[in-house]
Design a protein that fits this description.
With 510 residues, the chain is mainly α. The protein has a domain at 287-510. It contains 25 helices and three strands. A three-stranded mixed sheet has the order 1-2-3. A hairpin with a 4-residue loop joins β2 (67-76) and β3 (81-87). α2 packs antiparallel against α5 and α15 (288-307) runs antiparallel to α16. The longest helix is centred in the C-terminal third of the chain and has 32 residues, at 336-367.
Length: 510
């Protein structure tokens, strides 16, 4: 696998700048005491990261399978560790997506977070540093370090700024679940590094570098063990049924900002694409049927449970489980359409899930609850909020012309190609999603006003309107122009598919 260095492309270490600029902003906040100046400084740092990430995307060479903007410095050479950052078509769009979500979270919480705003903003920026590190690290152990660092700000955000009475328990449950997955992840990475040492051409040295590991072959028995270790860790993070128990409580009890990061950034599915598919392709192909079964079960289970949820946040949590199942079904197809669709879908969820959660947050700020029984008639008092919620709902339903449609269409196309008519059961997700999303919209925004609080509700404020406008435009724009996303990832996805089972490779070339 080839790599183009950052010095060749842009002349400076752009990925390191993106990773550590939020941390530098975090340090600057320590010395600011005025709340208004504090928020402006944090937002300026987040906007700078977003602008730099858009420059990264503009400078990216589309149509190339190479890793780009590479930076590599020896870290612990004696055991093969290095500080190595790079992006390809699979990961490049997650950097601006992360930066965008951070900006939107800051704007939406501008007046909503009154308790210790400095600590809140510092926690958000710390999460941004770790998250961008996860999406850009191509040394396995460096990836693991960033993966673990995310737990600290996540726990703090849920524990301190959560809205529910059980937020402490939800935060602890989340951290313990992730640590269980991290143990499996670390063991799997160590096995890959040790396996590389005995591979031809390795010189008998350890290596945890993704590019080096992609150029070697892992023995079949080791592949199977590594597959299950990594699959468990990433399925827990995604979360994929039946490893989803932590998600509903976390989204219900935690702050909206943290819910946006957990539901909008599908790092578990990304982990499958970044490490499992390219490093243990034979094992993934052999067990793809299991991934497909779990995916279809998750699609139906999540949608059916979402259909009966009385609370909007829990509805979004189970909808997320359903969408993760659909993405995993796409990966299991072993063909370019399914894998491309899965990547598009999880990118789209960064927009649609964020829009749904921010709409829930705006409702909670005005009504004090996201229980559908306490709502009704909101559209009469908050037409702009209702319009925003409608656009988000249509994106979640995957209506043609919204960003939800291309990913789901490609996944179902790939699934029919791989499995034939039996996979038609997964199409039910379209009907079920429409049912629970439209029922939510009808009960929350239409009908008669049943509460004096709803009667007095104010419409979107200026900053909230800007947030809603950005997301609404993005949902529609990527629905009409999906090639803006697909052109970045197509070459890298084709390369991933070629690494899978030879039979799938021949099918892709037909």
């Amino acid at each position: 696998m080839n790599e183009i260095t950052a010095a060749e492309q842009v002349g400076f270490p752009i990925l390191s700048t993106l990773v550590f600029l939020p941390a530098v902003t975090l340090v600057a906040l320590v010395f600011i005491r005025n709340d208004r100046a504090l928020r402006r400084c944090a937002l300026a740092g987040a906007v700078a990261v977003l602008g730099l990430s858009l420059f990264l995307v503009a400078a990216f060479h589309r149509g190339a399978t190479d890793f780009q903007f590479g930076e590599q410095v020896p870290w612990v050479p004696s055991i093969g560790l290095s500080y190595h950052l790079a992006v390809d078509g699979v990961s490049v769009l997650f950097v601006p997506l992360t930066a965008l979500l951070v900006v939107l979270v800051m704007l939406s919480s501008w007046s909503a977070v009154r308790q210790a705003p400095k600590a809140y903003l510092m926690a958000v920026l710390a999460f941004e540093t770790a998250a961008i590190g996860v999406f850009t690290a191509v040394d396995l152990i460096l990836f693991f370090v960033f993966w673990e660092l995310m737990l600290i700000p996540t726990y703090v955000l849920i524990r301190v700024w959560g809205a529910g009475p059980q937020r402490g328990r939800a935060a602890l449950r989340y951290v313990l679940s992730m640590l269980l997955g991290s143990a499996a992840l670390l063991v799997g990475f160590v096995l890959l590094g040790v396996s590389y040492r005995s591979a031809p051409g390795s010189g008998g040295v350890l290596s945890f570098d993704l590019l080096a590991l992609m150029g070697s072959t892992v023995p079949a028995p080791t592949q199977t063990v590594v597959f299950f270790l990594l699959a468990f860790a990433f399925a827990l993070k995604a979360p994929l049924f039946p490893f989803h128990a932590w998600l509903p409580a976390t989204l219900l009890e935690g702050p909206i900002g943290m819910a946006v990061f957990l539901a909008g950034l599908k790092m578990g599915v990304f982990g499958f694409m970044r490490f499992v598919l390219p490093l243990v392709p034979e094992a993934f192909a052999a067990w793809s049927w299991l991934i497909a079964v779990l995916g279809v079960v998750a699609v139906l289970y999540g949608a059916l449970i979402a259909l009966v949820q009385p609370d909007l946040r829990r509805l979004i949590a189970f909808a997320s489980v359903s969408h993760v199942g659909l993405a995993m079904l796409g990966l299991s197809t072993l063909n370019a359409q399914g894998v491309q669709g899965a990547l598009f879908l999880i990118t789209n969820l960064g927009l649609v899930s964020t829009a749904m959660l921010l709409a829930a947050g705006f409702v909670h700020q005005r009504v004090g609850s996201t229980d559908l029984a306490a709502l009704g008639g909101l559209a009469q008092r908050t037409p702009a909020l209702a319009t925003f919620a409608l656009v988000a709902s249509l994106g979640a339903v995957a209506l043609p012309g919204t960003s939800g449609f291309p990913g789901e269409f490609l996944i179902l196309l790939g699934a029919f190609r791989a499995y034939g008519w039996p996979v038609a059961i997964a199409v039910m997700t379209v009907i079920l999603t429409a049912a629970y999303v439209l029922v939510f919209f009808e009960r929350a925004f239409h009908g008669r006003i049943r509460s004096t609080i709803v009667e007095a509700a104010a419409d979107l404020r200026a900053r909230e309107a800007v947030t809603a406008g950005i997301l609404g435009v993005a949902i529609v724009a990527f629905g009409f122009f999906p090639a803006a996303v697909l052109n970045y990832s197509s070459a890298s996805v084709d390369d991933l598919v070629r690494r899978l089972d030879p039979a799938s490779t021949l099918a892709t070339e037909d």
